[in-house]
């Protein structure tokens, strides 16, 4: 461990940011720091992502990969037509993905709008935040998701309501307009304020996932800078997308974010999670992400505390593939529930 690494590891989030950017989190200091980060070779990044995407997994490891994918899913419903009944059904599927096979693991979390959190918590019962890998968390999207177009007071009230209702995780969106306009301090300050609002009365805190909405950031360099900015401000996870724009998670974008997480760990010793969300629908696609994580950081990141898939339809395909690996054949179309 280098001296700088040792010092940074002992600082709190705010102190660490000041030490790294050379002063308070002003637009000027943040711009100098973020624009001093080496740019991304887009061709090289895409070639590496494509190469990782072609890696195969041995037949003997497919069952492990499938179960790992299930255990990393944030099973999601984020529709205007969501109802308490739909959320209860989602929780049932999260707890027992395959009713015919009790060995099937549970998912990591259910992800819902803030007003649906009490219904998710009630449906989970004793399985909510069990404190073990067997528990299922409740994640709530907040801060005027998906646009982020609201006053800071409204955004923070959104977070507090979800946390008070029992959310274990908050998935916030950054103000992409502010970021793209170079108002880095505004984005930083909002993340800091949201992080503070994740605190509970007992001193614990909901984990904060910061959604970059990478499809609106246009370039890999912007994705890298936004990733660093979110982590400097205190993100526990960085997340690609809301799933509400045409371009959601892609393997190159996720690779670029994993590289930031790797570099941050080398610099500070701290571990930050990554969550690709939106557009990952098949077991084959999800496996590419497992390989990319293992090759970019280490396999230690393949735990719910450090990696998630944000998905609504992925689980069904994974369950079908799991059934094929287990029994040697696919079941009929009614083998899984259609959400």
From TrEMBL:
Cited Pfam families: DeoC
Record field: catalytic activity: 2-deoxy-D-ribose 5-phosphate = D-glyceraldehyde 3-phosphate + acetaldehyde
Pathway listed: Carbohydrate degradation; 2-deoxy-D-ribose 1-phosphate degradation; D-glyceraldehyde 3-phosphate and acetaldehyde from 2-deoxy-alpha-D-ribose 1-phosphate: step 2/2
Highest taxon of the lineage: Bacteria
Cited CDD domains: DeoC (cd00959)
EC number: 4.1.2.4
GO molecular function annotation: deoxyribose-phosphate aldolase activity
UniProt keywords, alphabetically: Lyase, Schiff base
Family indicated by similarity: Belongs to the DeoC/FbaB aldolase family. DeoC type 2 subfamily.
Protein name: Deoxyribose-phosphate aldolase
The organism of origin for this protein: Cryobacterium breve
Gene it is expressed from: deoC
């Amino acid at each position: 461990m280098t001296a700088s690494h040792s010092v940074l590891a002992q600082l709190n989030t705010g102190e660490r940011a000041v030490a790294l950017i050379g002063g308070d989190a002003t637009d000027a200091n943040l711009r100098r720091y973020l624009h001093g980060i080496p740019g991304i070779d887009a061709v090289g990044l895409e070639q590496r992502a494509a190469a990782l995407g072609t890696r195969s997994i041995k037949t003997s490891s497919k069952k492990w990969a499938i179960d790992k994918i299930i255990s990393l899913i944030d099973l999601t419903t984020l529709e205007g037509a969501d109802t308490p009944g739909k959320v209860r059904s989602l929780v049932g599927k999260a707890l027992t993905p395959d009713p015919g096979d009790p060995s099937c693991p549970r998912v990591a979390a259910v992800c819902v709008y803030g007003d649906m959190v009490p219904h998710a918590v009630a449906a989970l019962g004793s399985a909510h935040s069990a404190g073990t890998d067997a528990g299922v968390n409740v994640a709530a999207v907040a801060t005027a998701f998906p646009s982020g177009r609201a006053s800071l007071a409204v955004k923070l009230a959104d977070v507090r309501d979800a946390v008070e209702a029992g959310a274990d995780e908050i998935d916030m969106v950054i103000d992409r307009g502010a970021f793209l306009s170079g108002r880095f301090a505004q984005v930083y300050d909002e993340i800091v304020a949201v992080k503070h609002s994740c605190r509970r009365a007992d001193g614990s805190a909901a984990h904060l996932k910061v959604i970059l909405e990478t499809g609106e950031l246009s370039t890999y360099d912007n994705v890298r800078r936004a990733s660093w900015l979110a982590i400097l401000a205190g993100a526990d996870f960085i997340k690609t997308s809301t799933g509400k724009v045409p371009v959601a998670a892609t393997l190159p974008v996720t690779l670029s974010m994993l590289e930031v997480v790797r570099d941050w760990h080398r610099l500070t010793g701290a571990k930050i999670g990554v969550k690709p969300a939106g557009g990952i629908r098949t077991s084959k696609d999800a496996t590419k992400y497992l390989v990319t994580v293992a090759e970019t950081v280490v396999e230690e990141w393949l735990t719910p505390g450090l990696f998630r898939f944000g998905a609504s339809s992925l689980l069904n395909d994974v369950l079908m593939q799991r059934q094929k690996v287990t029994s040697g054949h696919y079941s009929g179309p009614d083998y899984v529930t259609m959400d």
